[in-house]
Design brief:
Elements: E1 2-6, E2 11-15, H1 22-39, H2 54-63, H3 76-100, E3 113-116, E4 119-122, H4 135-154
Antiparallel strand pairs: 1-2, 3-4
């Protein structure tokens, strides 16, 4: 995700470059982080990544005066579909990577991504402004992370 910002016109908008191979870039970054952490003796556990809402986030930023307009609004639906596809692939990679390392995955995305038959629904209302978690979601994540940390520590 990249931000466009022109201070003189007070423009700021989150958008996704559709032509980049984000999955490959994220996998490479995760692999680099994992190598660095393992080199200093850390046990590496990646948590799955939840989505965000381009529409909610950018609209929120406009409502609070952080931007004067939204140039990419007509592309949000396409960007959202692409982001969700990227996250599906990255989360699959995270689970595989954690399994290969013998650790339990914290499935943080599962609180916002719900599967109904063969379709995934995204519960954007769990994200206050399209990005940040509600208090209830934060509490759920904290409990889930605590339980997952305990499981991984038992497996040391």
């Amino acid at each position: 995700m990249f931000f466009g910002a022109y201070q003189e016109r007070k423009y700021e908008e989150s958008y996704l470059y559709l032509e980049k191979d984000h999955v490959a870039l994220i996998k490479e970054a995760m692999s680099d982080v994992e190598k660095c952490m393992k080199n200093i003796g850390c046990k590496v556990v990646f948590a799955t990544i939840t989505t965000m809402s381009f529409q909610k986030w950018n609209t929120h930023r406009k409502l609070i005066g952080k931007t004067v307009g939204l140039k990419y609004e007509s592309d949000y639906e396409r960007m959202q579909e692409r982001l969700n596809s990227i996250l599906y692939a990255v989360n699959t990679y995270i689970v595989q990577r954690n399994l290969g390392n013998g650790v339990v995955t914290p499935f943080l995305h599962a609180f916002v991504h719900k599967r109904c038959k063969s379709k995934i629904r995204y519960i954007y209302s769990m994200l206050v402004d399209g990005v940040h978690p509600t208090q209830a979601l934060s509490a759920s994540w904290a409990r889930h992370m605590g339980a997952t940390i305990e499981k991984n520590e038992r497996n040391l």
